[in-house]
Amino acid sequence: MDFALFFTYLAACGAAAATGAMFQPGEWYKSLQKPRWTPKDWMFPVAWMVLYIAMSLAAMRVALLAGSDPRTGQALALWSVQIALNTLWTPVFFGLRRIGAGLVVIGMLWLAVAATMVAFWQIDAVAGYLFAPYLVWVTIAAALNRSVYWRNPARS
Predict the structure, then answer these.
(1) Which uninterrupted H or E stretch holds 137?
(2) Angle between helices 125-151 and 99-123 (to 10 degrees)
């Protein structure tokens, strides 16, 4: 385990996490119509903490193989795209309150996470497995974003 490398990737996740602290759901989000299966509020920070650790471990594992596998550059570039989109979604959805634009961002995020998972999997199966829960969570978040969009047409 390369702790310096792990914490570097975790720091990148910290930027995404910071947007969650800056743009909290608040009363606006509470007032929206949401499906019954909406996760409880306490689940979001717990899930993201676990996912950010897993994402950082996965990226570290792939980065450690950079000298022996030429595919690592593209895989880590995809990791960069997904963390940028991850960072963008919260300010768009909660900050700007643009539900439809948030749906576009999370759709792109889903594609980036899926591509990163596949790229990681081809290089290191454990790294690919570490990304799988993230894809599941983003799938749930995208379905929730879509449901909120449909249920609140006047606020989109």
Answers:
(1) helix 125-151
(2) 170
How many Å apart are CA 143 and CA 140, to the nearest integer?
5
In the 3-class helix/strand/coil scheme, how is 5-71 assigned residue by residue? HHHHHHHHHHHHHHHHHHCCCHHHHHHCCCCCCCCCCCHHHHHHHHHHHHHHHHHHHHHCCCCCCCC
The count of residues in the chain is 156
Per the structure, the complete domain to which residue 23 belongs is given by: 3-155
Indicate whether 41 pLDDT > 80: yes
pLDDT digits (tens, 9 = 90+) for 23-39: 988 899 999 999 999 99
What does the pLDDT read at residue 94? 96
The CATH code of the domain that includes 147 is: 1.20.1260.100
What letter represents residue 12's amino acid?
A
Q: Report the number of distinct structural domains present in the chain.
A: 1
User: pLDDT tens across 105-145, in order?
Assistant: 999 999 999 999 999 999 999 999 999 999 999 999 999 99
- The DSSP-derived string for 97-121 is --HHHHHHHHHHHHHHHHHHHHHHH
pLDDT of residue 1: 86
CB distance 55 to 106 below 8 Å: no
